[in-house]
Please model this.
Amino acid sequence: MLKWLRSLFFVFQMYAAMTLMALFFTPWGMFDRRGVFAGVHCYCRYVRWSARWIVGITSEVRGDVPQDEVLIAAKHQSFFDVIIICSVVPRPKFVMKAELRWLPIVGWYARRMGCVSVKRNQRGRAMSKMVDEAKQGIGEPGQLIIYPQGTRVAPDSRLPYKPGAGVLYAQLGQICVPAATNVGLFWPRFSVMREPGHAIVEFLDPIAPGMKPRAFMGALEAQVEAASEALMLEAGYEKPAVIQEPGA
Model:
């Protein structure tokens, strides 16, 4: 019961802090995008700090944090991996659901950051729009972050990697930095409950531009899934037993 109350308080104060920091940084951000990124960094670092002291989730970033104009293709398990990445990447901008652009506070900041919005139910048109918007933003420094599976994926689930990351990789001609995580073990997708533990986001070896999209997607999935599984096992995750069919 106490753990649940602590988790509830953590969630409440996290969104209260978002509102207060938005009031502070928005006037600056209206005239200068540096104010937007300052607000994002401040908020995300605060959430990491408060997660440690309120619910016992420490967090760590491993690997070389991308500083240049690159594509980051990251494993997505919960909102906390977004928080961790945004706390260290200089100018993050995301490929995100179009609906998020109209959320209070979050939507305005997303637009000012240069996030790329896509409609999931219009695949072909959405991919063309995604590439066009991403190319339009190349002139402004930043790191474009895409979640290749398109949604949050629980630690014990597997979803296929969608072609969007491969399309952006081929069209933009940029280095891609894969990123793995284990945060879903401690910060579930759809629950208030937070579990104490050590959450990690790890930036992996970059993938140079020039690969064929299918080969790129295969390499990306292999790297991210293997590294994410290793991080989860390091945190104490036990893989579900594989049940073989009789006679197999």
Notes: The chain has one domain: 57-234. The radius of gyration is 18 Å.
